[in-house]
Design brief:
Layout: H1 3-7, H2 11-29, H3 35-42, H4 46-74, H5 76-95, H6 100-118, H7 120-130, H8 136-146, H9 150-165, H10 167-179, H11 181-188, H12 200-206, H13 210-218, H14 221-250, H15 256-280, H16 285-305, H17 310-322, H18 327-339, H19 344-373, H20 377-400
């Protein structure tokens, strides 16, 4: 049966989840274009702005399990729409800012909390519940790919508005774009009317409390190994997004090369998400995750061991982009298989919280090592070593111990 025919009843839900994810991720990834004019105009330092971004990532990571747990009690629609409104409030607070406090609260806490309600973990959980298991991984890849397109829309709009009318108008334009998240969340919220599938795994953990479901997840060795490797994933990716522009400047390359490389990452990210969603329907998802980490680490080693050139940098961006968000459909699909769907958003949030700890280490640790040693050599070597170790352990564990339905623990 054609895929579109299978998905037709779920299309409003899937389109809503994709649009919500596209905007929540795209707007967040594009905030950096306002950093220079904003900090200069209101008299704060670049480090103040980046600290707000760090607070955003920590808030997102640590609130993600809570948002996931709340979907079980209040439904996805309520949580997603609250997140969309919070996103608009955070952007509006930034647009009207006259000091660091507004930036910290709006761009840090409000947008971080909103991402916990509208970004990858929630969107993937919605898509997982909306479609049959036979096409689930493929659909997760499609939704993940949609999340890669947002920056291609929001960044040019924000740049044009900022250049023509000032950064405040640019951020006001982002508020208007964020308004679209409200109807998107409403349509995605139709998933609340879809009953959970009748499976032994989902029934077993579905009757548990949130605390018992969390204990069940952390008693599952496959989940623990996956989450630890996920931390290394976050460390590598945020190290690149934070420090690659600085590395290229040290190498004396054109500053525009950084933007071109990030664009290359975004474009190939779509292809990678689609491929790994398709592959996860056919092969061991946890083993594929490990292979992504190994290939990323080998690519990092190749790039940083050789002199950086425009061609090698763009090729590096293409390879890393292909391996970037392919982890999302694989991780979401694996968690659904291990624990069922009722508590998927919360359990995926617990794993993502570990990922964000790695993200913090990648950004801040890379900066500390550079300040102490004057180069990124030790930082990228650590990233490569940990990535190879995490990937090898993930693949080995996935092959010798295929994931099994959890044994429910009592609180």
């Amino acid at each position: 049966m054609p895929l579109l025919q299978v998905l037709r009843p779920a299309l409003p839900v899937l389109i809503g989840a994709s649009v919500m994810l596209t905007l929540s991720m795209g707007l967040r990834q594009s905030l950096g274009i306002f950093m220079q004019p904003l900090t200069h105009d209101i008299g704060i330092s670049v480090s103040d702005f980046t600290l707000a971004v760090a607070v955003q990532n920590i808030a997102w990571g640590f609130l993600q399990p809570l948002a996931g747990a709340m979907t079980v009690r209040y439904g996805f629609r309520s949580i997603m729409m609250a997140g969309a409104l919070l996103y608009m409030a955070g952007l509006a607070l930034m647009a009207s800012a006259h000091g660091v406090v507004s930036i910290m609260i709006g761009g840090g806490i409000f947008i971080g909390a909103s991402l916990a309600c509208t970004a990858t973990a929630i969107a993937m959980s919605v898509a997982t519940r909306a479609v049959p298991e036979a096409v689930r991984s493929t659909v997760l890849g499609i939704v993940s790919a949609a999340g890669s397109l947002g920056a291609l829309l929001s960044a040019p709009i924000g740049q044009v508005l900022s250049d023509g009318f000032g950064w405040r108008v640019g951020l006001a334009g982002f508020v208007v774009l964020a308004l679209i998240m409200i109807p998107a969340a409403w349509f995605a919220g139709r998933v609340d009317k879809i009953p959970l599938p009748r499976s032994s795994t989902s029934e077993e953990i579905g009757d548990a409390s949130a605390l018992t479901a969390a204990k069940t997840a952390f008693s599952n060795a496959s989940f623990v190994v996956m989450s630890c490797a996920f931390m290394v994933c976050g460390m590598q990716l945020v190290f690149l997004t934070t420090h690659l522009p600085s590395y290229l400047a040290i190498c004396g390359l054109d500053p525009m090369l950084s933007a071109q490389t990030l664009g290359m990452i975004g474009g190939f990210n779509v292809l990678g998400s689609l491929f790994f969603g398709w592959a996860g329907q056919r092969w061991n998802k946890l083993a594929l995750l490990g292979m992504i980490y190994i290939l990323r680490s080998l690519t990092l080693a190749w790039y940083f061991m050789l002199p950086a050139t425009p061609m090698s940098t763009l090729l590096f961006g293409a390879i890393m982009g292909f391996l970037w968000l392919g982890v999302s459909p694989l991780a979401a699909g694996a968690i659904a298989e291990m624990f069922g769907l009722r508590w998927q958003a919360m359990i995926q949030g617990l794993s993502f919280m570990v990922h964000q700890l790695g993200s913090f280490l990648g950004a801040y640790g890379g900066g500390l090592l550079y300040d102490a040693l004057g180069s990124y050599t030790v930082a990228w070597r650590i990233g490569v070593a940990l990535g190879l170790a995490g990937g090898i352990v993930q693949v080995t564990f996935a092959l010798i111990r295929p994931s099994q339905p959890p044994t429910l623990r009592t609180a």
